[in-house]
């Protein structure tokens, strides 16, 4: 019984009633029911507006302070002092959230302090990554020197053992602060969100600054965050609240710090910028998944997501255009495939433009294959064009789009024609086999027409009516 009482007290100390953000604040619940309504209500509105302005300004000041410290304050003080200063500020923000809720009985300010404490966690991880970088890195010396000269300039340099010990102790404190923050912002999903947030932040501790490695981490973690966050959202309806939306959005902050570090300290290549654009698309996709279709900003977010997808495609094309390991004939289909894939991905979110996204994806894929066939030819391109054309033709029929259907038919016929031309012009085993298969398919098609001519005619009539029904 004593153990149960201790646990109850601990639960109350971690999640006080004043910080129950799903309910009204304590001072509002204690308001007298017979209080006069009228002029005092207008005064209350002005007070709320002023308090909102003050809280917003205070939050911006704190965020600006952390950003300035992250990119400007590394040279001041020794390493241990700077580490304790960052941890102390994070702890103060967490305690200020409890104090605001417990003493002032005001949930909005408490929520803001907790949110700022969660947002400060990636800053701490970034510093700890710089603290251990030169002791653990496998990068080339030139890269390591440029990183150490900026991130590790310190009057009192720590040894490898001391740096690792400080990092381990700091991680324990940051893990506790993260769990408490998510417990306040999203109680039911606190554990999975905490684990996911710490895992993404751990990328800031990886001792490498190479563009390829950082790009791979950004892309892999971005996909993982979006996938896992959507699953957690489906299992926890309370994450649709403003607090839940912030908790899910916070998961992207470590990726922003990871990308910003490379942009600030180094000269990233086109592949890195491609990764950043894909991360931006994933962030917009996460935002789309968090909003309803009838929400005010849903349409604007969809437009931004399409722009991010187009920008990613351009950067992918710029990245592969000079890549010698990729064949010339595969570069245009690769870039077009990225754009078509992102458009198809957007169509899965239940938007009112879903059919338009899938139609645009089919259009992009077919036009890319037709251009590629005209520019490069080749048996492989012909088969790919035939496959893409058939897929586009099928979608055009299902979507009742004459234009897409006709475009798919053109791409399929073009692919078939280029395949036949390649097989007839150069005698190879592959071309000869394809020619034999093409002849067999033609004979089978003739037999089908002979045997089921009436049914095929009826089917063509139904197809005509099918497209006319769409108008």
TrEMBL record:
The chain crosses the membrane at residues 52-73, 79-100, 112-130, 150-177, 189-206, 212-233, 245-264, 270-288, 300-320, 379-398, 403-420, 426-449. Coiled coil: none annotated. Keywords: Membrane, Transmembrane, Transmembrane helix. This is DUF2157 domain-containing protein. It comes from Thiorhodococcus minor. The lineage of its organism: Bacteria, Pseudomonadati, Pseudomonadota, Gammaproteobacteria, Chromatiales.
């Amino acid at each position: 019984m004593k153990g149960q009482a201790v646990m109850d007290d601990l639960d109350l100390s971690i999640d006080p009633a004043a910080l129950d953000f799903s309910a009204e604040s304590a001072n509002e619940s204690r308001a007298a029911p017979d209080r006069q309504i009228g002029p005092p209500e207008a005064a209350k509105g002005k007070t709320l507006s002023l308090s909102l302005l003050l809280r917003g300004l205070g939050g911006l000041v704190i965020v600006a302070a952390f950003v300035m410290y992250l990119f400007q304050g590394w040279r001041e003080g020794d390493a241990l002092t700077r580490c304790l200063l960052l941890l102390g500020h994070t702890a103060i923000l967490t305690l200020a959230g409890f104090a605001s809720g417990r003493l002032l009985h005001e949930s909005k300010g408490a929520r803001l302090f907790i949110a700022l404490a969660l947002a400060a966690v990636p800053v701490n991880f970034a510093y700890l990554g710089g603290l251990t970088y030169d002791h653990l890195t496998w990068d080339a010396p030139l890269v390591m020197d440029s990183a150490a000269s900026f991130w590790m300039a310190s009057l009192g340099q720590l040894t490898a053992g001391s740096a690792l010990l400080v990092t381990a102790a700091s991680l324990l404190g940051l893990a506790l602060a993260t769990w408490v923050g998510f417990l306040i912002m999203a109680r039911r999903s606190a554990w999975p969100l905490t684990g996911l947030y710490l895992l993404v932040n751990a990328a800031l501790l990886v001792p490498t600054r190479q563009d390829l490695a950082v790009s791979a981490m950004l892309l892999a973690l971005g996909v993982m965050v979006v996938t896992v966050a959507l699953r957690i959202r489906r299992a926890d309806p309370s994450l649709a609240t403003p607090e839940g939306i912030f908790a899910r959005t916070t998961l992207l902050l470590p990726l922003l710090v990871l990308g910003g570090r490379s942009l600030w300290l180094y000269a990233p290549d086109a592949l890195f910028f491609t990764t950043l654009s894909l991360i931006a698309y994933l962030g917009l996709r996460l935002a789309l998944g968090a909003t309803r279709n009838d929400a005010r900003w849903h349409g604007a977010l969809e437009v931004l997501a399409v722009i991010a997808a187009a920008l990613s495609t351009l950067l992918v094309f710029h990245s592969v255009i000079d890549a010698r390991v990729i064949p010339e004939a595969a570069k245009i289909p690769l870039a077009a495939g990225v754009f078509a894939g992102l458009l198809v991905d957007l169509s899965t979110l239940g938007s009112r433009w879903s059919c338009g996204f899938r139609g645009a994806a089919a259009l992009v894929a077919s036009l890319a294959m037709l251009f590629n066939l005209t520019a490069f030819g080749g048996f492989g391109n012909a088969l790919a064009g035939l496959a893409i054309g058939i897929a586009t033709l099928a979608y055009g029929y299902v979507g009742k789009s004459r234009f897409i259907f006709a475009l798919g038919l053109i791409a399929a016929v073009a692919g078939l024609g280029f395949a036949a031309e390649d097989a007839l012009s150069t005698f190879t085993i592959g071309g000869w086999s394809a020619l034999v298969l093409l002849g067999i398919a033609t004979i089978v098609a003739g037999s089908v027409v002979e045997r089921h001519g009436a049914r095929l005619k009826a089917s063509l009539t139904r197809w005509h009516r099918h497209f006319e029904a769409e108008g």
